[in-house]
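Memo to structure team: turn this sequence into structure tokens by end of day. - J.P.
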Amino acid sequence: MKRILPILLALAAAIPASAQNAKAIFAGGCFWCTESDLEKVPGVIAVVSGYTGGQLAKPSYDQVSAGGTGHYEAVEVTYDPRKLGYAQLLDAFWHDVDPFDDLGQFCDKGSQYRGAIFYLNADQKKIADDSKRALERRFGRKIVTGILPAGPFYRAEEYHQDYAKKNPLRYHFYRFNCGRDQRLQAVWGKTPH
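Reply from structure team:
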């Protein structure tokens, strides 16, 4: 055993950190808000704002926000599965969206602002499907948040990354005026945001 332990420790150290991390992709309306909220979840390493779900390669913010590209404003989450399971991350996502709004999220309307879970593998799909069914039983009504296969994820322009940190006054003004926290409280009860 004494000989095996150093070998195991050396092997573990040789595995790149990125191989130990996992990814998830969610759309929750304004990606500034989704990014900011999910960055606060313990076990989350990084959250990147971007676009996914459409056919247009390398879309711009102007193209996506105008509608018609098929893309959603979305975030790609990198997390440590040793500290945070996908089901726990999914629970944090659910509590950050209005799962009953099929026209968008909060004050942002249009297909580019709808909520969605983009699964990267069969395990994520099963966990997402199970959690959606559980919420439908809990609320006694249909959840309209989509569960879709992940496609290419395109990083948004740099000025969108960490928007809440770079522009706190504008961010909080937008978030308040959009009614996000008020609606989250109405759906889920007290929110930590």
